[in-house]
Every structure is written in structure tokens, then in C-alpha cells.
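Box 4.2: Ligand-aware structure prediction
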Amino acid sequence: MIALEDQLFKTGSHNDKGMPGAENQRPEVAAQKETSGNRQKIEIKKVNKYYGKKQALTDISLTIHQGMFGLLGRNGAGKTTLMKTLAALHKKQSGTITVCGIPIEQAKEIRAITGYLPQDFSMYPSMTVSESLDYLGVLSGMDGRLRRERAEMLLKRVNLAEHRGKKVRALSGGMKRRLGIAQALLHDPKVLIVDEPTAGLDPEERIRFRNLLCEVAEERIVILSTHIVGDIEATCEDIAIMNDGHILWKGTVSGLLGDAEGKVFTININKKFLAQIKKDYIVTGMLVQNEFTTVRLISEEKPEMIGAQEAEPNVEDAYMYCLYRNGCDLGGGVEG
Ligand SMILES: Nc1ncnc2c1ncn2[C@@H]1O[C@H](COP(=O)(O)OP(=O)(O)OP(=O)(O)O)[C@@H](O)[C@H]1O
Ligand SMILES: [Mg+2]
């Protein structure tokens, strides 16, 4: 796969419209550019975005580097709005964004270096896998040979080569998403934005899909949004947590875990005390065994209960602690 990509670099432009991007560069040239300033990062400064009177993004400032970046947040947090804004599909009202050095206002240039897989993407169900990739290539103005080469390479990469003749309507949810990624990568973008791609996938497909994104992120900026904390834990080093249009937290996964150090406890209690515990604490897990339940909870101080033990925080605990510390309504804890 890499060899073919390398070859594609050497054959020159990936499209007949002279779109900017890595296509005109040999890999070693691209690597040199990586070290030069803004080329491989997204800079977001004080961005505000409204839908009518509703403020969906408030003073968002973030720097996103090459690799996997995770955007975590509840329903309505503003993840899709931010991603669409970064893909130049939505306009912000104030603030600045540059993608690999290009101001977001240059929408055509931004789209030429960005692949975007929307949360609710649709495909033509009666097209085959190959046809749907080819069709997109035609729309992007790629010539026939390049379309075939890129499609072939990407179908192998997303593990759909054996299904190229299958109709889209016959694909599983995971296969559809992998085809969506192939479509989003067809023009070899520098930035890949995927909005909640793992929702509704079975565990095996989710893991396979996450691994695919990680591979893609070796050479690109990949932004992944999710409310499945496990996706972030498994794949992302840098993350941001959004809530109600704000960035609540940004940094590394290990930094987030560090913040929750000393705030997570387990306790074995009789079932009859469970309701009270759930009222008093944020419960992140429960293991019921006969009349006893082992409860995992978040607390600023060690609970004054016999047998309470400090536990190593996991990312789910740390996420809940972050929401709690920022005053978010957690509705009496989360049952696990
Ligand atoms: N087209 C729109 N018009 C008006 N309000 C909108 C529009 N799109 C989103 N919103 C509102 O903006 C806020 C952020 O929505 P957004 O879809 O960005 O959140 P999200 O984090 O992607 O949520 P989810 O996890 O449910 O996908 C929400 O309050 C939502 O109701
Ligand atoms: Mg969304």
C-alpha cells in the first residue's frame, strides 16, 4: 500500500485541477515541510458560532497536531458544529482558524486538503462499492487512471477489496463506514475529520475501525469525535472535552487521568444503601454480587465508609470527574 502511495506521489498531481496538498510532493519533501511551522497543524483561536440566537461554540481555542485527536462530549456539546466549521462547511461568526497554514475562509483550498465523514452520511444504495468510490472521484475531477489507482489502494487499505462488487445496500454498518473512510481519503487529504464513526458498530468492527483510523493518522491529522470514551482511550493521545459549546478540558489522555488521581474509590456495600450512594456520589460502575454491590464512585475526599478504597482512575472515571468538576449536571451518576 505504502509503495503504491509512494508511486502516486511520484506520478505527480492527484487531480487535473491542480488542487494543493501532498500530491505534488515526494514523501521526503513532505516530511521536511512537517517541521516547518503551520504546515501540519490546525490552529483555532477564540472561535464563536451561532445558529440564530443559539450559541453553539463559545471561545473555542485549540491546536491540533498530526496524529489522532479526540473530541469527546455529550449530545449537543458542539462536536459536529466544530467539525463542520473546520471542514469549511459551516461559517463561524468570530475568531480565526488555519488548517495547515490555510485560513478557513479559503473554503475551496480547505476542502481540497480535507476529508470529512459526516455523522449521518448517505450513499447511493444501488451502486457497488467500486462504483461509489469511482463516482466520488469523478465529482472531485480526478482522471480515470488516478481514480482506479487510488480506489484500488484504498479498498485494500480499508479491507473491502473482496467486496468491491457488492451493492452498498448489502454492506454492514462497519463496512459502510470503512467505505466512507475510503471516500474521504480518495483525494489524499492532509486532514481527515470523522464525526462519531463508531456509533452503532459491534465491538469487533469498532476495534477494526479504530485501528484503521490510527494507521491513517500516521501520516495525517485525524480528528475523531465520539461519546464513547473507550474509542478515545484506545486511540488518541491528545483530546478535548466539549460541553455546551465550551472546551472544558484539553490535553493528553494521561493528563486527564492524572487530574482524577485520588478521586476514584470502590466500596462494597449492601444493596439497600445503593440508592443513597447514587444520590450522594457520581457512580461510574457497579458490580452486583448477591446482596452486595461493589460500587465505583467519584469523590473529592475519601468517603467515610468502612472498606472504601482508592482506585486507579480509568478514562471513563476521568471524563466523569472532569464533567463533575466543571459543574455539569450528571443526573445522579452513571450506572455501569
Ligand atoms: N442547524 C442547526 N440549527 C440550530 N441549532 C443547531 C443546529 N445544529 C446544531 N444545533 C444546536 O447546536 C448545539 C450543538 O450541536 P452539535 O450537533 O454540534 O452537537 P454534538 O456534540 O455534535 O451532538 P451529538 O453528540 O448529539 O451529535 C446543540 O444545542 C444543537 O441543538
Ligand atoms: Mg454530532
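In the box above, the bound molecule is adenosine-5'-triphosphate. Residues 51, 54, 56, 73, 75-81, 119, 227 surround adenosine-5'-triphosphate (ligand 1) (CB under 6 Å).
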